[in-house]
Predict the 3D structure of the following.
Amino acid sequence: MTTTDAAISAASTPPRPPNGKGPVALSQMILQARETLLQGRNEHAVALLRNILSRDATIADAWFLLGAAAQAADDPQEALGCFQRSAQLSPDWAEAWFQTGVTLAQVDRFAESAAALQRATELKPDWIEAWLNLGSALSRNGESETALVAWRKVLRLSPEHAQAHYNCGHLYQTQGHWQQAAEAYIRVLNNAPDMVSAHINLGTCHLSMGDPSAALACFKQAVRLRPDYALAHINLAGALAALDRFEAAVEAYTVAIRLAPSDAAPHFQIAALLRRRWRLDEAISHCRQALALAPQLYEATVALYEMARHGCLWDLADRTSQDLDRITDQQLKARKRTAESPLISLWRHADPARNLAVARSWSLDIAGPKGATWPGRTPFAHKTQDRGGPIRIGYLSGDFKAHAVAHQIRGLLRAHDRRRFQIFGYAANPSDQSEYREELAQACDRFTAIDTQDDRAAAEVIYRDGIDILVDLSGHTEGGRLDILALRPAPIQAGYLGFLGSSGADFIDYFISDAIVTPASDDPWFSEKLIRLPGCYQVNDDAMVIAEAPVDRVSEGLPPDAVVLCCFNQPFKIDDATLKSWLTILQQAPQAVLWLMDHNVTARRNLCQAAGDAGVDPGRLIFSKPTRIDLHLRRLQLADLALDTFGYNGGATTANALWAGVPLVTLPGRHMVSRMSASALQ
């Protein structure tokens, strides 16, 4: 907003004699008080002003200067009363309304602040500072469109006003309008090239639009301008990580930690980076340091739980899960979006009611009341008449890459009857240059990459394509773009496959499942109408090739005469109950071994440690690295029996085992993700 100096310099000699109390003497006293304030002698100025007001309490200038003195003494409540009294006594004095509005904003009374500042602009229509502050008050009050009107007024008065361009850019950025935000920040930097925050925000926009190289240039400039600014180094590290320059990113985070040792942010960010490389021990250490510095950084609690699960650190996972229960309960009670994602909720609780509550908190955050006032957030309207021709189905996913969802839907995209359906693919993720990406693109009649487009622009692409049914394949998972669906680019919208629970969103009409994963008793726990497919809900590629290359147990590190039990699910699915049951089997079947995915060092170490603690030779746990899918299917045939995980079943891994001809044992649970394998086996 504004500073105290602005309030002091706004005061003037009273335009009228003060009510017969010796106008010349009082006017001279006001001038003396003003000069005393400018000299920083607040106590003496206050004494003079109190003396004046004891003689005549209707002098607006005296109240105004008394408010300025209170501002200088960091007493906004006292200042507010004085400025309000000044405006009441002199209702046509723009400066009094201005300072009233500014001070109201300081005490978080933004609606009243906007009203006072609006009055100031009415009295002085060309006052740039008043319009600028009015926009800020409106923005803080959630009136984004009106705030933009105020800032655009500033730009009409002063087309190159850096702060107005910056404010517009920041608002566009919070709305996800990356291109508009970037254009605004470029205008800022044309006139204020040393504004570090504009370089950082412009870089963030470039990252969001899928251009990490441009982002890197922005963050480097921010570091050059302020080499001691930890936030600049944190953002620099983010761009380096996006460019897969891992060691340089670690170094940038390390610099940020050195510059701001009491700041949790760089510890949290470096933990996320290390987790991406599966250096879980280091990542967990940094995550714990972040929480020690900022216990209310609930995202770090979620990350710690997730990493504990990936690393098979069951005690840590249990303790952190208890913390998350408390945090989530508090946030749900306060009607806030939970820190834990809906996906983590599915990991933690086989409770469809709780899972729905968490998912709904996220969907309401996407499409809730604040979204209704944002520019460009109005949902699309759809015609009801049949336009003729094939039905247009759009598939939206952040997983059009080497990913389990892509692996599963290849057959689906091929199988559509092109006489009845036209298939559109919308990739919310950048290309990974994989065979999956190429094959999926070729399987669609039209395939569009929307990863660099903001939500509104992406939704407009889908709307212009005339999609009849939009199927979201990601939901509340990493890379999902539910914000696009909130704009209703298609008249019918459905969730399927990628997120295996209710979205909790009123903008998704249907959820595709079956009677095993979602029995009738689950209907109350889905915001969507359930479409239950006959048989199994899970589509799979019916043309998967199994390599013909010869394999044998010895070459895979398996004992030739053992009973080979296998599970190639990710380690996070191996909860404590699952592992205990497996170790019981190994205790009672000494001729058996357990064949697992070699996913990360931490999980492998802890699985072996748990086996040893249970009296099972850790050597009976055999680990294999991931490999090409056709080779994996071939080696799977060396197993005798596949074992499923309890709380979160295998999806693609179950299908792979069955496709390779390996029987599988599962134990159905209470929610969808714990009944997937039962569905596949029916």
Observations:
- Residues 67 and 82 are 5 Å apart (CA to CA).
- The first helix runs from residue 4 to 10.
